[in-house]
TrEMBL record:
Name used for this protein in its record: Aminopeptidase N
Similarity field: Belongs to the peptidase M1 family.
Peptidase M1 alanyl aminopeptidase C-terminal domain: residues covered: 534-849
InterPro entries xref list: Aminopeptidase_N-like_N, Aminopeptidase_N-like_N_sf, PepN_Ig-like_sf, Peptidase_M1, Peptidase_M1_dom, Peptidase_M1_pepN, Peptidase_M1_pepN_C, Peptidase_M1_pepN_C_sf
Cross-referenced Pfam families: DUF3458, DUF3458_C, Peptidase_M1, Peptidase_M1_N
Cofactor: Zn(2+)
EC numbers for this chain: 3.4.11.2
GO molecular function, one term: alanyl aminopeptidase activity
Provenance organism: Psychromarinibacter sediminicola
Keywords: Aminopeptidase, Hydrolase, Metal-binding, Metalloprotease, Protease, Zinc
Domain Aminopeptidase N-like N-terminal: 105-180
Residue ranges annotated for the Peptidase M1 membrane alanine aminopeptidase domain, each copy included: 219-430
GO biological process: one example: proteolysis
Length: 852
């Protein structure tokens, strides 16, 4: 049942126009479709008509006005086939009426209900659960939609048509694949605004939310307008309809969806107010609003030929939203955050059983490939391309891309060809970034003689499932050199590595320099180079590249932690002194200082130790990290209270990056301070907080030191009525529970009356949050593994997509000791043996276990 990229064939029939009528009813919605087909001149003639369709009750169907009697079509679980001899030679009209059950649709794919409102999620293959259709992205058509319902708000893609009592019509002139179809109906309130495009087109903007949430839309609306302007200014892309709507939905499997003119969002990425959303939430809202909006050009106007090309739209759109956020906020801080996320999720994936290329070559369930590799590594690949061809080359290539491929369902080959044509480069070897899985390792040695400094670099990518041997890739390595006084003697230069082994020489140097390698994280690789604590401290103090400055501190922290875990060593003064200099350096952006003072996560340390040949013990890592935090607190004790006060910005809460950075540093100080004052400052902050960032931060600091039980109760009573805030309440308790009590805590929370496990956000806030508690998840009793497996087995028949995604909690099982491996394997096998396990989860568990 696997699908292969190499099996691609063009569709036998194209669609000229789609017209849909929805008669909404919770358990028995009727969908009437009229689809104008035409044989594809690029395909073999005389083929049968294949229509995808799942969970549909077919009421009637007709071809060219003639009803199809029973038995004419070959019916299956996955669709219909109409024999060629029942089809006219030229274009023809297909008509059908089907019945579907939105209220019974708990998988949240297709047309479903969330809190009494109707909504849809069609990417990747959900449209086939709405009506019979060639549900593939290379079939594009304009859609006309009529919705009949007594719900007050009726929305679909495109521009408004006629509307009246109990109905509304919508018309989307831009040809689109079915995965971009959307429909919403419900008792919703709109917050409206307008935007004038650079050529003077007026666009009506609307954010639709449940009654009561109108006050939480301002930030999303503002982010939308900034995104629209930015895409005009930076990419020359203008919006192309008279209306752009966003709807917030509480039950949603993913973050959001870029349906043409009608984006549908998980409400947690739209709704924000100072008292309910944290700085992190605001940042996510801004980034995801931008992401979905940017898809209008990179995804919708130019879509993917097939789902193997998913990174064509996702990698590029992530890259664009990252650019946007770094323009809106601090570029270095954004870059560090993106790399932290890349390493935490993508490196973890790339170095485990789920490793796959940015463009996979086969899949069983495409929903399982909306991964950090396709998205985030896909974005890194574009960043490398841009670095290699330069800003001007990139701009030319993108202009050509939009000109050449507007209206197309394109491929990665098309994408690379645009760069080749615009910049006169041969990108054949660069193309390996799309086809080879795994994180390349760069092994670096150096020598210095007669003023010549040489870097010898070896690249190697370890085997990944199905790819035992790798060919060398093109790796842009940004390097700068500092002299021993700390001055930069060679500014950032991009070395272009193409061979398995290569040397690069810098001449005319007065003294042996200190290299700053892989500046700005110029490639998604792992740098392996033996260096000293002194050199790292030197770079932390002097590097002009903010990313590598941070990276040097990071490496120091990892060294210290690793030695604490393996040799029970005490943290040395070199690291603590370096930290103190950072903490005291008022010339540094507070957000940067907060990042530099933050220790690597326990999961990150587990991977680091594993890479160094040590079997990680999650409890020992947790203990060492706590111990180091206490040592930091003691070492910084003289400055913490002042730092905590200095970062207290007066005035009402504002979500901008500068203020958020101050709060982040203040929170770091509070976390350390709590270890010295038994939570006094945190308890006070909890009482005084007038925004969620500080309220939740205080509660987290209290829970970390084993206090805060009273506040947990108060928090619940204060926020009982707010789903998104209660999600945080669940997640915080699970992620901050003491390791030996994590499973028990999570289990108790699953018995709470508000644990609405069919809601993906709520499910993740307890079961998923266990992964944030690494030592608790890996408790040697195996209690957490068991709990997670029990719940995944329960969720699978209800919501396969979310279940499958969450099996990745187990993807690192091979890192650990034999006992833990056995326990995790047992949990995975128990999931695998579940009768009628979904295709989604079956594929994931099989890949994680490594049986083919
Ligand atoms: N295209 C959406 C986005 O990145 C994600 C949709 C994911 N849907 C899914 N079924 N995997 O913005
Ligand atoms: Zn996307």
């Amino acid at each position: 049942q696997a699908v292969f990229l190499s099996d691609y064939t063009p569709p036998a029939y194209l669609v000229d126009r789609v017209s849909l009528v929805f008669r909404l009813d919770p358990a028995a919605t009727r969908v009437l479709s009229r689809i104008e087909f035409r044989p594809n001149p690029a395909a073999a003639p005389g083929q049968p008509l294949r229509l995808d369709g799942e969970k549909l009750r077919l009421i009637r169907a007709a071809v060219a006005g003639t009803a199809l009697e029973d038995g004419v079509c070959a019916h299956s679980e996955t669709g219909l086939t109409i024999p060629a001899d029942r089809l006219p030679d030229g274009p023809f009209l297909w008509e059908a009426e089907v019945e579907i059950d939105p209220a019974g649709n708990t998988a949240l794919e297709g047309l479903y209900m969330s809190n009494g409102m109707y909504c849809t999620q069609c990417e990747a293959e959900g449209f086939r659960k709405i009506t019979y259709y060639p549900d593939r992205p290379d079939v594009m058509a304009p859609f006309d939609v009529r919705i009949e319902s007594d719900q007050p708000v009726l929305l679909s893609n495109g521009n408004r048509g006629a509307a009246g009592d109990g109905f509304a019509e919508w018309s989307d002139p831009w040809p689109k694949p079915a995965y971009l179809f959307a429909l919403v109906a419900g008792d919703l309130r709109a917050v409206k605004d307008r935007f004038t495009t650079k050529s003077g087109r007026e666009v009506e903007l609307g954010i639709y939310v449940r009654p009561g949430d109108e006050g939480k839309c301002d930030y999303a609306l503002d982010a939308l307008k900034r995104s629209m302007k930015w895409d005009e200014d930076v990419y020359g892309r203008e919006y192309d309809l008279a209306i752009f709507n966003i709807v917030a939905v509480d039950d949603f499997n993913m973050g959001a969806m870029e349906n043409k003119g009608l984006n549908i969002f998980n409400s947690k990425y739209v709704l924000a107010s100072p008292d309910t959303a944290t700085d992190g939430d605001y940042e996510n809202v801004e980034g995801i609003i931008a992401h979905e909006y940017f898809h209008n050009w990179t995804g919708n106007r130019i879509t993917c030929r097939d789902w193997f090309q998913l990174c064509l739209k996702e990698g590029l759109t992530v890259f664009r939203d990252q650019q946007f956020s770094s323009d809106m906020r601090s570029a270095p801080v954004k870059r560090i955050g993106d790399v932290l996320a890349l390493r935490a999720r993508q490196f973890r994936e790339d170095n485990g059983p789920l490793a796959h290329p940015v463009r996979p070559s086969s899949y069983i369930e495409i929903n399982n490939f909306y991964t950090a590799t396709v998205y985030e590594k896909g974005a890194e690949v574009i960043g490398m391309l841009k670095r290699l061809v330069g800003d001007a080359g990139y701009a030319r290539a993108l202009d050509l891309y939009f000109r050449r491929h507007d209206g197309d369902a394109a491929t990665i080959e098309d994408w690379l060809k645009v760069f080749e044509d615009a910049t006169d480069r041969d990108l054949t070897q660069f193309g390996r970034w799309y086809t080879q899985a795994g994180t390349p390792r760069l092994h670096v040695t150096e020598d210095f003689k007669d003023g010549c400094y040489t870097l010898h670099i070896k690249q190697e990518t370890p085997p990944t499932p199905g790819q035992p041997a790798k060919a060398p890739q093109v790796i842009p390595i940004a390097v700068g050199l500092l002299n021993p006084n700390g001055d930069e003697v060679v500014p950032t230069t991009v070395l272009e590595m193409t061979e398995a082994e290569q040397s690069f020489t810098f001449e005319n140097l007065a003294a042996r320099p200190v290299p700053s390698i892989l500046r700005d994280f110029s490639a998604p690789v792992i740098l392996e180079r033996t260096t000293s604590t002194e050199e790292r401290a030197f770079l932390l103090a002097h590097d002009t590249d903010p990313f590598n400055k941070w990276e040097a501190g990071r490496a120091l922290a990892k060294d210290v932690l690793a030695r604490m875990v393996t040799d029970n060593a005490a943290p040395g003064p070199a690291y603590l002194d370096a930290l103190e200099r950072v903490a005291r350096d008022d010339g540094l952006d507070p957000a940067f200082r907060a990042l530099a003072l933050r220790l690597p996560s326990e999961d990150d340390m587990a991977q680091t130790l594993f890479d160094a040949g040590v079997t990680p013990d999650p409890l020992a890592i947790h203990a060492a990290r706590e111990k180091l935090m206490l040592a930091m607190a003691e070492h910084l004790s003289a400055i913490l209270p002042d730092l905590y006060e200095a970062m207290n910005i007066p005035g009402p809460y504002a979500p901008d990056a500068r203020a958020a950075g101050c709060r982040a540093l203040r929170q770091t100080a509070l976390g350390l301070l709590s270890r010295l004052d038994h939570g006094k400052a945190a308890a006070k902050q909890y009482r005084d907080a007038d925004n969620m960032t500080e309220q939740l931060g205080a509660l987290g600091a209290l829970l970390t030191i084993g206090a805060g039980q009273e506040e947990v109760g108060r928090f619940y009573r204060q926020w009982e009525h707010d789903r998104l805030v209660i999600d945080k309440w669940f997640a915080l308790q699970t992620s901050h529970a003491a390791p030996h009590r994590a499973a028990e805590t999570a289990q108790a929370l699953t018995r709470h009356k508000d644990f609405d496990w069919k809601n993906p956000n709520r499910f993740r806030s307890v079961i998923g949050a266990l992964a944030m508690n690494a030592a608790g998840f890996h408790d040697p009793s195996g209690a957490s593994y068991e709990l997670v497996a029990d719940w995944l087995i329960r969720l699978d028949p209800v919501n396969p997509q979310t279940t499958a995604r969450m099996t990745t909690m187990f993807e690192t099982w091979r890192r650990y000791d034999a006992d833990r491996q056995d326990l995790m394997r047992d949990a995975l096998r128990r999931i695998a043996r579940t009768p009628e396990l979904s295709r989604d989860t079956t594929e994931m568990v099989g890949r994680i276990l490594g049986d083919d």
